[in-house]
Design a protein that fits this description.
Structural class: mainly alpha
Order of helices and strands: HH
Helix content: over 70%
Radius of gyration: 43 Å
Strand content: under 5%
Number of helices: 2
């Protein structure tokens, strides 16, 4: 095998390797290509997720406000109950004093 035959054989081998690599690359991109409908579905799901997160945040804010209102209302009710119980205690004591004076 002389020098010219060696160069031609090497060139043919390199060309075949290049062609096989190019074909493999084309096959990979052909089978992994993202379809436009898939992209549209992803966009729609992304928008729905964003809306769901906003709704969740609004619900959390509402629940926190409602919890605060109910806590305040409970504190006021407990204060009123305590005042009513104190008034009832005073009224009973006064009633006992009046019964003791009468009887």
């Amino acid at each position: 095998m002389n020098r010219t035959e060696f160069i031609i054989a090497t060139a043919i081998i390199l060309f075949v390797a290049f062609a096989a690599g190019w074909f493999a690359n084309w096959l990979v991109h052909r089978f992994t290509r993202v379809k436009q409908s898939d992209v549209a579905d992803l966009d729609r799901m992304s928008q729905e997720l964003h809306e769901a997160e906003e709704t969740r945040d609004q619900a959390i804010t509402y629940l926190q406000q409602r919890e605060s209102e109910l806590t305040n209302q409970l504190s006021q009710t407990e204060a009123e109950l305590s005042a009513a119980m104190e008034g009832l205690r005073d009224a009973r004591r006064e009633a006992e004093e009046l019964r003791a004076r009468i009887g």
